[in-house]
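Hi R.,

Here's the chain you asked about this morning:
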Amino acid sequence: MTRIRKKKTILVKNSIADYTREIVESDYAIIQALSENYANLSALARKIDFLIKEKTNKKVNIQAIISALKRIRNNLKISSRKNFEVLATSSLSVRTDLAKISVKASKLNAEIITKMMEKFYESIVQISWSPTAYTIVFDEMLYPNIISFFKKEEILEDKKGLAAIIVHSSENIIETPGCVSSILNKIALREINIEDVVSTYTYTLLLFKREDVIKAFDALNSLISECRRIKS
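And here is the predicted structure, written out as tokens:
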């Protein structure tokens, strides 16, 4: 009599936990559902099972995926608690009637911006640097003055009618991963476009079109209030 062997689940080279973590980290909706403990683990595991099979063309173990999800959920809860503690003590301020200009990165433009800082120190909200561009956020009333400093061909972008929300946090934000991500994700869930974002020391500046700033403020105020509720 021929003996039929039961087909075993094939384990892929990378562990199921690695594939599961990779899929979870690429989808903020899943991260939120796990961290806030409303995800149906069995249903989510079936979805991830399908994605892993699609990627590896191999059979995997659903229970292994559920176990990986539980571990990820526990880690997210610990991380979220730290985020809540930082954001719960944060505050918001708003600056309206702003403009911004981005210019090509060069020694000459760096020197111009340095001189500009000396002249208009109180009216410049933020300066950010990259290897290819310098961006200045400033009071809109200075727009004609600021733009006159640069040659037309040096200007990459200029915009008026902007407003900034500044999130003031404790020094703990520097060592707490995920805080800025939580802020940005809250804005993204409201489908609000961010013109620019800069994180410097203990404050995070987010730049919006003037008409979007009220919605953005409401979203961030809601985030901070929720963190305070959870913390208390």
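One quick note: Residues 4-13 have pLDDT under 50 and may be disordered.

Cheers,
M.
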